[in-house]
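My current task is to audit a protein record that another person submitted. I need someone to confirm that the token line plausibly describes how this chain folds. Take the sequence as given and treat only the tokens as open to question. This is what I was given:
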Amino acid sequence: MITPPDRTPLPRDFFDRPVLEVAPDLLGRLIVRTTPDGPITLRLTEVEAYDGPNDPGSHAYRGRTPRNDVMFGPPGHVYVYFTYGMWHCMNLVCGPEGTASGVLLRAGEIVEGAELTRERRLSARNDKELAKGPARLATALDVDRSLDGTDACATGQTPIRVLTGTPVPPEQVRSGPRTGVAGDGGVHPWRFWVADDPTVSPYRAHVPRRRSR
């Protein structure tokens, strides 16, 4: 008999921990995005940890700005940023308020509402690719900067909620370098994923962007 995933919302104290504890513990959890057309549920299969002032790869490494303000807490909120002038990426803030740490949601399996995500992800060759990568995940869940600062632990109606789901056993969790992170931050093995899961995105090392002449 297969036990269905636990749909109890994760409490705020789940996120009020060091980022390297929260990140692997998010694997197997459910992200529920409520849209006007209906709910979309995603099972997390890949994440990356970013440790604020201790991490050259973090947006908060050099301090607080209007862009990264949400990262400084409280925990359990959604941090959304816009990158390369075309894509949004979704993060969950964790750690004590003021620490500016967060977890980038890199990939997942759409377990409810796939018909809604297919409309946004027309280039996906199959459902395993609907949220295979951080920009694809945000697009599939219809996440943009308007959701920056959303409290994913709020009671009542909220556009994004994180449910308990089915946590991944430690022996099925893998870790390695973060994708596309340059410099000193590129050496940290702070990307975590579910072993052999087809929705996990491929690893890519950082490649310096060429400036046009």
Summary: Residues 17 and 78 are 16 Å apart (CA to CA).
